[in-house]
Amino acid sequence: MTRERPVRFREGGEVRFLSATRQIVGFEHEHEAKAFLHDLHERLRAFELALHPDKTRLIRFGRHAAEQRANLGEGKPETFDFLGFTHFCTRSRNWGSFVIGRKTIKKRMRAKLKAIKMELRKRMHDPIATTGSWVKQVLQGHLNYFAVSGNHPSLWWFCNQVRWLWLKSLKRRSQKAYLSWERFIRLVDRFFPPIKVLHPLPLHRFDAKTRGKSPVR
Q1: Cα–Cα dist 102/106, whole Å
Q2: Which of 16, 87, 155, 191 has its CB 3.0 to 4.6 Å from that of 132, i.e. a possible disulfide?
Q3: Is 89 exposed, middle or buried, given 0-12, 13-18 or 19+ CB atoms closer than 10 A?
Q4: CB-CB contact of 100 with 82 (8 Å)
Q5: b/e code 15-28 from CB counts within 10 Å (16+ = b)
Q6: Residue 6: its pLDDT value, please?
Q7: Of 114, 169, 109, which Cα lies nearest the Cα of 142?
Q8: How far is CA 5 from CA 8, 11, 38, 146, 151, in A?
Q9: SS3 80
Q10: Judging by beta carbons within 10 Å of its beta carbon (0-12, 13-18, 19+), is residue 30 exposed, middle or buried?
């Protein structure tokens, strides 16, 4: 939104405005963050726009957040939700250094589980292999996005909930239906993808490996 490119709005029937993308901005000093927020308010006011009061906030976050909040007599550092993850301050188990923790937003997981439960009811009388392939596709898609470093507890909880939902659905196929635990475990081993980190931390993801290659001179 520069002065050379003013914002224009279309008014009329059947026009739906898309919500703006959420933005996270980090600053080293508190006064810089407050100055930026003030300038942003003023800039949007020039276009007769405003920031959402419930979705705009300043939080103390980062490697010094816990110490600073303790000195102020406050509790643990605040968290924020972004791109499907709840971000929080934590420390590495191996080195004890500061890292940004990420876990799947629980509200989204519960909504997804509710949709899976409804779909399993629709597929209750489909062949088990067909439903199993669908469950595998759903879980793999979930892992492809949320399988980041440090998110193991959320991944295990989600996959375990899907397992119980499928088990209940299989037991309701018929009053005379019988499914042993051993057979169900074989189905889980067949259709449930392994839970493992697919997106390591950037320091590992972008680590250049030159093993077996001669250095460039």
Answers
A1: 12
A2: 191
A3: buried
A4: no
A5: eeeeeeeeeeeeee
A6: 47
A7: 109
A8: 9, 19, 22, 37, 42
A9: strand
A10: exposed
Kind plus residue range of the DSSP H or E element containing 104: strand 98-104
Residue ranges of alpha helices (H) inside 4-127 are 30-45, 65-71, 106-122
Instruction: Give the C-alpha distances (Å, rounded to integers) separating 12 from 15, 18, 23.
Output: 6, 15, 29
Provide the 3-class DSSP secondary structure of residue 82.
strand
What per-residue confidence (pLDDT) applies to 203? Answer: 54
Amino acid code (one letter) for 166: W
* pLDDT recorded at residue 87: 92
Q: How big is the chain, counted in residues? A: 217
Say how far apart CA 152 and CA 167 lie, in whole Å. 22
Cα separation, 99 vs 104, in Å, equals 16
Which two tokens mark 204? 């590992």
Q: What is the pTM of this model?
A: 0.76
Residue 69 near residue 75 (C-beta atoms within 8 A): yes
CA dihedral 169, 171, 176, 180 (to 10 degrees): 140
